[in-house]
From TrEMBL:
Residues 12-63 form the JmjC domain. It comes from Leptocylindrus danicus. This is JmjC domain-containing protein. It comes from the Eukaryota. Pfam families: JmjC_2 (PF08007).
Amino acid sequence: YPHEQVWKKNIPVPKEIFENVVIDETLGPGDILYMPRGFVHEASCSNDSPSFHATVALMTHDWSQASVYTTILSEKLLSIPSHRLSIDRRVGSEHDSGNRQHIVEDQLRKVTEAAQAVSFADVSRYLLKKYKMH
C-alpha cells in the first residue's frame, strides 16, 4: 500500500474521488472529526470566523526500519546490472535438482555485500528526501 498513496510520488488524486461527498458536516468549537488514514478530504470555514484544520499522522509502515532499509537496499541492488537479471525459474520448482543452489548462494553473498555497503550517508540522504515530501 505505501506505493499507492495519493500525492506522494506525484500520484494525483483521482477526480472521481471528489464527485461523491461522503461526509458533509459542520463542526462546532472543540469538535473533532476522525478520518482514517488515506481518507482524501477538504476542509473549509463556513463564515468569517477563524478556523483551525490540522492533520495528524502517526508513523506508518513506510517509516519502519524494514521499509527504509529494504528500499535503500533495493535501490542499490537495482543499480547493479547483474541483480536486474531474473532468477532461474527452475529454482524452487519440482524440476530443481538442487544443482542451482551454489548459484543462489553466490547471489545471496552479493546481496549481503550490497547490504553491508549501505552507509549512514545513504540512510540520511534517503530520509532527507523523504522528509521534503512531508
